[in-house]
Amino acid sequence: MYEIISALRQSAIVADIEVIELIDEDSVKLVKIRAALKENLILYVTELNTKDYQKYSYHCQEDDGNFVVRWDNSPHWKEMSTYPDHKHENDQVYPSHRMTITDVLDQIEERIG
User: Fold this and answer.
1) 66-96 pLDDT, tens per residue?
2) For residue 22, what is the enclosing H or E element?
3) Which of 46, 52, 71, 80 is deepest in the core (most CB within 10 A)?
4) How far apart, in Å, do the first and last CA atoms of the chain sit?
5) For residue 49, is it left (φ>0), alpha (ψ between -120 and 50) or beta?
6) Sheet harboring 86-89: ordered strands across?
7) φ, ψ dihedrals at 40, nearest 5°
8) Based on the structure, what is the number of domains in the chain?
């Protein structure tokens, strides 16, 4: 989870980060972050890891609230070939591999040039 914070701080497209919640215990690791990006974008990052459970969400939106894209592993698209990993974009849901913060930042950077 500290690698997520570090990657955000080092990224050229990140203007500012706010760590909303950080739990670093033996039994649970949780990080929630709000990152202000270039081009008036906001990236919300959530990663939760326990011994038996992993959940992530990378949600990108415009600063006025308009949705752009989200990658997550919420288990509600069982027919997806990459279940539970998937991507929401343009009112559609698509297969996606397990994303990392570096993957997400790379893809957003491609979008904004």
Assistant:
1) 999 999 999 988 899 999 999 999 999 999 9
2) strand 14-24
3) 71
4) 27
5) beta
6) 14-24, 28-37, 41-50, 54-62, 67-72, 86-89, 92-95
7) 60, 40
8) 1
Range of the domain at 76: 2-112
The pLDDT-based confidence of 104 (bands split at 50, 70, 90) is very high
Amino acid at 44: Y
Tokens of 101: 């913060």
Residue 88: left (phi > 0), alpha (psi -120 to 50), or beta?
A: beta
How many Cβ atoms are within 10 Å of 41's Cβ, its own excluded?
21
Tell me how far the alpha carbon of residue 74 is from its chain's centroid: 12
Q: Which residue has the tokens 């592993």?
A: 73
Would you state the pLDDT for residue 88?
97
Average pLDDT over residues 60-69: 96
